[in-house]
């Protein structure tokens, strides 16, 4: 590979925005400086004032392999990821068969090798019965242990309180949780059915998967982590109520960290009217007030990470009625554009955006040599044109499911170029080059 010099970039990195050139040699960043002379034999990419930042490290995706590949697979969804400026992903275990053994994990890494266009890691899923697999896990074999403390897609609920104690006491790597209290949800469902019959309207979703159900479960997770000194990361928070559980302290001092997803920062319950089951997801999109509280928590540091929970289902499945439509929506191709529009509206700063989508993920999971634009680090970068509007259309979607909740929507920014391990993998709306994704490495367990 010839060296690649990126010139005239507006670099967003480590809490500041400045003009910079970045020289890439092989897979890594060789130099970051105000101005760099073009080395012999180098290719030059003139950023012409566009924003350059570390690619997003998405700590929560469902790429559906193995077993659910009619919805998506590692090749298709990682292509969409790099088209969205996501250069690394951490994939969830609710596939078929479920990723609940170390052997199943090893098979997933084999499947990703040579097919994933972004860098990859996989979670080990917890069940009521696999504590021995969890304890035997070696740091580096999985990015974390996923515990569904609320039932969702894939039937992986861990509701045995004794087992939860054992997981939090013995997990050798970070525990990440889906928090919704299933008994509360079941009661709410029964009440909705009694009122509406089988035809429950979509607008009931946030009342069924209620804020109370979220708080009960996330409070339990936080309590378990505190009592056992476990490293806990609570996924996809959705309510103002839960924000009181998390600390504004620097993430280096925290044992308990928190995540929000782009759809919960963008949509609120008013959108059930036009988008219906397309935005059915668990936990549910809630009120505008909840969304405001999430934005505030991103800004004050109670929320550490912004992810996608990219969860494709086929268009046919999503057209079903409330109870029959599966929860989840595809997001990985437009997450950064959503966030750039929030920044344009003054809701978050670009420095915070980069911190929550890259720096914090690398720090919290201990990802080796990624997540920052630093000399010696892997060249995982995205160039964004904040002044080039982009309309989401079926024709520009790379998802296997071929639909998006944003179809017809015009974002004010475009993903110009994505670089993974020094290779230009997306440019001017097209995939380019080969498959450059590598297995993520981790320098910490919990
Ligand atoms: O909405 C969701 N979809 N929430 C989850 O927890 C799972 C995901 C999926 O796998 O479809």
Q: How does this model look, in words?
A:
The protein has 446 residues and is of the alpha/beta class. The protein is 28% helix and 21% strand. The chain is built from 13 helices and 20 strands. The chain has helices at 74-83, 102-112, 131-136, 161-170, 182-196, 205-208, 211-228, 262-266, 272-275, 288-300, 315-318, 335-344, 350-365; strands at residues 4-13, 16-25, 28-33, 43-46, 51-54, 56-61, 86-91, 119-122, 124-125, 145-148, 175-178, 232-234, 256-261, 305-307, 381-385, 390-391, 410-411, 414-420, 423-427, 430-431. The strands form four sheets. Strands 1, 2, 3, 4, 5, 15, 18, 19 and 20 form a nine-stranded mixed β-sheet that branches. Strands 9-10-11-12-13-14 form a six-stranded parallel β-sheet. Strands 6-7-8 form a three-stranded parallel β-sheet. The protein is globular. The protein starts with a strand and ends in a 15-residue tail after the last strand. 53% of the residues are buried. The model has no long low-confidence stretch (mean pLDDT 97). The chain binds (4S)-2,6-dioxohexahydropyrimidine-4-carboxylic acid (DOR). (4S)-2,6-dioxohexahydropyrimidine-4-carboxylic acid is lined by residues 62, 94, 152-154, 178, 281-282, 311, 326-328. (4S)-2,6-dioxohexahydropyrimidine-4-carboxylic acid binds at residues 62, 94, 152-154, 178, 281-282, 311, 326-328.
């Amino acid at each position: 590979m010839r060296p690649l010099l990126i010139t005239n970039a507006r670099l967003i990195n480590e809490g500041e925005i400045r003009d910079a050139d970045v020289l890439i040699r092989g897979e890594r960043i060789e130099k970051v400086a105000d101005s760099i002379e073009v080395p012999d034999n180098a290719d030059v990419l003139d950023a012409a004032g566009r924003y350059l930042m570390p690619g997003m490290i998405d700590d929560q995706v469902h790429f559906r392999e193995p077993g659910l590949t009619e919805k998506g697979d590692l090749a298709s969804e990682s292509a969409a990821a790099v088209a969205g400026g996501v250069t690394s992903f951490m994939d969830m275990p609710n596939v078929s068969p479920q990723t609940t053994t170390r052997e199943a994990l090893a098979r997933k890494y084999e499947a990703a090798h040579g097919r994933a266009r972004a860098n990859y890691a996989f979670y080990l899923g917890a069940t009521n019965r696999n504590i021995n697999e969890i304890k035997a896990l070696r740091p580096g074999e999985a990015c974390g242990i996923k515990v569904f403390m609320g039932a969702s897609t894939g039937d992986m609920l861990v509701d045995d309180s004794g087992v939860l104690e054992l997981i939090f006491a013995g997990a050798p790597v970070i525990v990440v949780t889906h928090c919704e209290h299933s008994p509360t949800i079941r009661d709410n469902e029964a009440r909705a059915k009694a009122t509406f019959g089988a035809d429950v309207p979509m607008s009931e979703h946030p009342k069924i998967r209620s804020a109370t159900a979220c708080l009960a479960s996330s409070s339990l997770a936080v309590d378990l982590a505190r009592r056992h000194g476990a490293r806990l990361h609570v996924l996809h928070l959705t309510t103002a109520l839960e924000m009181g559980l998390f600390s504004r302290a620097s993430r280096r001092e925290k044992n308990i960290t928190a995540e929000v997803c782009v759809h919960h920062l963008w949509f609120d319950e008013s959108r059930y009217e036009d988008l219906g089951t397309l935005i059915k997801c668990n936990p549910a999109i809630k009120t505008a007030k909840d969304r405001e509280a999430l934005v505030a928590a991103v800004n004050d540091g109670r929320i550490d990470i912004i992810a996608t929970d990219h969860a494709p289902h086929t268009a046919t499945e999503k057209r079903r009625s409330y109870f029959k439509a599966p929860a989840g929506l595809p997001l990985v191709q437009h997450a950064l554009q959503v966030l750039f529009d929030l920044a344009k509206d003054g809701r978050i700063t670009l420095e915070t955006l980069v911190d929550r989508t890259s720096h914090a993920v690398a720090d919290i999971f201990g990802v080796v040599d990624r997540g920052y634009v630093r000399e010696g680090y892997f060249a995982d970068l995205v160039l964004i044109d904040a002044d080039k509007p982009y309309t989401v259309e079926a024709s520009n979607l790379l998802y296997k499911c071929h639909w998006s909740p944003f179809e017809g929507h015009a974002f004010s920014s475009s993903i110009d170029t994505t670089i993974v391990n020094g290779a230009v993998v997306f440019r001017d709306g097209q995939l380019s080059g080969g498959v450059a994704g590598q297995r993520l490495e981790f320098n910490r367990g919990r």
